[in-house]
Amino acid sequence: MPLKAGTNSGLSGFADSMAEAMVEAFRDEWPHVMHGAPVPDTSDQMKLLFAAVARGVVKHLQEHAIDFKVTVTSSGSGDYKGTVTEID
Predict the structure, then answer these.
(1) Residue 19 and residue 37: Cα distance in Å, rounded?
(2) Distance CA 21, CA 14 (A)
(3) Separation CA 72–CA 75 (nearest Å)
(4) Whole-model pTM?
């Protein structure tokens, strides 16, 4: 499955995206860092911020795909597993 950065235009562009995962992580971490302050609602501005960050991350990864060194192993059953072995 390709990386899905997510967009802030429409629900389907945001669902199951990196941006949505970032919003969830932000909200999950909030109570641990903000010591009891109420977790903010997910606003359009928050979704915009994380969609922009996710799009930048995905764009950067795509533009630098050659920089990943991957080791591929096989279990002998036709299943292959790739592991990133070096990131600079």
Answers:
(1) 23
(2) 10
(3) 10
(4) 0.75
The tokens 């903010």 sit on which residue?
A: 40
Tens digits of per-residue pLDDT, 11-36? 678 999 999 999 999 999 999 999 98
Q: How many CB atoms lie within 10 A of CB 13?
A: 16
d(CA 80, CA 88): 24
- Report how far apart, in Å, the C-alpha atoms of 18 and of each of 21, 60, 82 are: 5, 14, 21
78: its two tokens: 């036709």
Q: Which of 80, 41, 66, 58 has its CA nearest to residue 6?
A: 58
Whether 23 contacts 43, CB under 8 Å: no
- Please, are residues 3 and 18 in contact by the beta-carbon 8 Å criterion? yes
Domain boundaries, the chain: 11-86
